Structure formats: structure tokens, C-alpha cells
């Protein structure tokens, strides 16, 4: 997971919205809320991560961790990580891991969020590898308890889809590459 300035995936992940609360009155920004000319202290607005980070670092806003990383999601991940549909948590494209990692870098208590992200990835890796190796046969059920390959695939987060594609490509190159060299 790169945070490169020119990385399209990093740009897409940073466009997800983060709920922020303004800590002081800000003139001429009322259009963000759609009501007044000025934003008052205590106003809650959802802002793209890249803007929320800048405003938070300058102590103009505070933010709370979005529900996609809250206690309900933590409990669901602990119960059965492969069964959780991460693709629907943070909007278009997913990027649940990248968005969470960026929030963790801004948040004082970020280590617990990073632990949750790592734990989710580790527990979802076996069905992800199984999916890549068996090309997501929707007929049979997966060995690791995620249900059918199709149900797990529909809940895959964007980084997981990229990872499974990379695993399939590596398998294909190692298997078919050897056969064509003979």
C-alpha cells in the first residue's frame, strides 16, 4: 500500500469522507454545510480525507473514527473476518485498508486501528489465496468458511482484489511460463 503522490489508488482512498467537527468559527466556508455564510464552532461536516487531515493538523477540526472502523465492525471481524463485506464500508471502490491506515496515521490512538486492519487482512488472506488459486468457482464452497467464492469476492476490498489479481498472475507466470520455456 503506497502513499505516493502520483498513485491513483492513494488519491482515490484519500477522497473518502471523514466526519469532522470544526473547533472554531470559520468565515466564508458555510457552503460546505450548505446553510450559512460562516461555519460555526461545533458544526459537523463530512470532508474528504485529504482536506480533513490538513484542517485537523492545523487544529481547525477534530474527527471521530468512522463507523467502518468502529466496535460493530471490530466484533464482526473477530467473529468471522472473511464473512465481512469490506467493499461496502467506505464507498465507491473500497480502499478500506488504505483509508483506515491514513486515519490511523492522523489519530493518536492509531495503533489499535492498525492492529484491527492487520488482523482483518491476516484472517482474510487464506480465502483470498484460495480464491486466486481456484479462480472463484461459485459452485463450491470455500475451505476457510467464507461461503462461496462468489460471496467472498463480492465483499472484497479494492486492495484485496488487486492482491488476488497479483496472486493469479504470479501463479500463471510460474506455471505457464515454465511450460512455454520447454
From TrEMBL:
Presence of the UniProt keyword Nucleus in the record: yes
GO cellular component terms listed in the entry, alphabetical order: GINS complex
Signal sequence bounds: none
Key word Nucleus present: yes
GO biological process: mitotic DNA replication initiation
Compartment annotation: Nucleus
Region of interest (Disordered), ranges: 134-166
Keyword vocabulary terms for this entry: DNA replication, Nucleus
Domain DNA replication complex GINS protein PSF3 N-terminal per the UniProt entry, residue ranges: 6-56
Function noted in UniProt: The GINS complex plays an essential role in the initiation of DNA replication.
Family per record: Belongs to the GINS3/PSF3 family.
Name of the protein described by the UniProt record: DNA replication complex GINS protein PSF3
Organism: Trichosporon asahii var. asahii (strain CBS 8904) (Yeast)
Lineage: Eukaryota, Fungi, Dikarya, Basidiomycota, Agaricomycotina
